[in-house]
Design a protein that fits this description.
Order of helices and strands: EHEEHEH
Shape: elongated
Distance between the termini: 29 Å
Helix content: 25-40%
Strand content: 35-45%
Largest sheet: 4 strands, antiparallel
Radius of gyration: 14 Å
Structural class: alpha+beta
Oligomer: single chain
């Protein structure tokens, strides 16, 4: 079982994504959040096909922090049903995964 995951979260704009990213990294739920601008999402919502511009957040976390991250994102996110999907990190450099573990340690500063 993977100890670390990448969580995909879409947001309506860069400002909302940055607010969530700063909170998640500041609270040590996440080690790093990448924000990818200008994605296009096509999806069905309340019986209608939507075609919207969004941003995508790539959030690197410890798997054990997923429930806490999910709870916090739901508190901060403007969507009624935000996308919060975790994908396992199957392999990674030892140095990067060590850094990820250290930066998500509650014992840190």
């Amino acid at each position: 079982m993977a100890d670390f995951v990448v969580v995909l979260i879409t947001a309506p704009n860069e400002e909302d994504a940055a607010k969530m990213a700063n909170d998640l990294v500041g609270s040590r739920l996440a080690a790093c959040v990448n924000i990818i601008k200008n994605i296009r999402s096509i999806y069905r919502w309340q019986g209608k096909i939507e075609d919207e511009g969004e941003v995508l957040m790539l959030v690197k976390i410890r798997k054990e922090h997923f429930k806490g991250l999910e709870k916090r994102v739901k508190e901060l996110h403007p969507y009624a049903v935000p996308e919060i999907i975790a994908l396992p990190i199957i392999e990674g450099s030892e140095e990067y995964l060590g850094w990820l573990k250290e930066e998500t340690s509650k014992e840190q500063g």
